[in-house]
Amino acid sequence: MSVRQVTFWLFFCFILLSCRFAYAITFFDDSFNYKDDSKWNYVQKTGSIGFSGGYLELKSSSPSFPIVYSLNSGLFKFQENQVFEVRFMFTDRNYMGDGIGVGFTNSSGYPFYQFAVWNGINDNTILVHNDFNNSFYNYCNVVNSMDGSHGVGIVPLGISDGEWHVLRIEKTAKRYEVFVDKDMNNVPVFSSADNQCIPEVVFLGNPLEGGSSTWTSLKVDYVRVHDGTYELPKNNKVIVLPGLGASWNEGAMVFNQAVAANEWKMTSFVKNYDSLIGALEQNGLIRDSDYFVWNYDWRKPLSEIVTDFNAYVAGLGISSGDQVDLVGHSLGGLVARIWTQENSEKVGEVITLGSPQSGAVSAYEAWNGAKVGDRFNPQSIVLNVLLQLQKKNNQNLVETVRSYAKILKDLLPTFNYLKTNGKVKVPPGNLYLGNKNATVSNIFDKFLAIIGKGEQTKEWIN
To answer: Which of 94, 198, 285, 407: disulfide with 290, CB 3.0–4.6 Å?
Structure first.
């Protein structure tokens, strides 16, 4: 796969995923693409602080562990209603624990946690909450003792190591609700009493030194403080639709057997989509839960493929009123776009790459002349071998192509592309695609077509 293709797939992911974190007002935001000394005080000690793949990683194999402090002590004081979010992962579980928290520091810089998620061999993963009453530490901004103060508490979280999680603290005036993975469970793991302290500092890591050198490693994807609407962005399911030739079923393709729709898989030598799938998973999406790859019988007429895709989406059990985001390549993009035209209310975004929105001249060459591909590559070789296997008695290769891959007729161009002795000739029509193109403007608000990757395509046949 070329660097150019990888860039396109990553651009797809940026378009699909960036909207997940679009808040009305953001007071603080760090996605840890690099070390930002304007936002954090990095205390490495004898551990390590690294930046890789868009996240911060803290780890140590010595008696001390890094700790990172936020520099702005007013992060939670911009307005009464605010949300603090951090996406994190404990990659393992060792004797010495560390974590993420918000709270205060004393005159020597030692942290006192008001809320913290902690992971160690003894406690598994826990939420620690601590009411800072004036009579104890005097780290609270209220004049009088806090109402309903109940001291230190521990809540077991039961979350898995090696997976991304989101700690979310919602502040309403001076009352707090704490969530972990709210998109999966919107019941708070802790709700505070009223009139609590307002934390001043974000902590990542562990300030302690000494003891064992086997530490739990911590990764942080982002830290954000934003306005208090308390509505998580809707995470649409993402469906990837590969292109022509990228799906395979031996029984159907070789022996013309009728097979179930779910028996189609990715063609083994097709690796074009690995970067896209990898990028989705790097952003925390789980296959067959958050995103799906739809493999299908690409030989059928286009309208039948669209119908098959409709049945596939219906079978995912997506709730009424929810939407999906579609990413389609080549023929898959054309299917995604047409299905969106017929089901606009069910689609958030549809993005296509290199899709023949107005048909392709190469489809005419295959339909009318049995020419399959200009290149010597695995796809062309396999298709030519399959066509030879499908030939019936007294059938020429053009007839074989037309009976085996009916899709080609629906990919004929909707524009002029034939010439005889330099004069334009009226080509065979493509009524289905032409009619769909006539109404495509109805989905322009959610449709992005990336139409080239720097390669010249054939425009005329003379």
So the answer is: 285
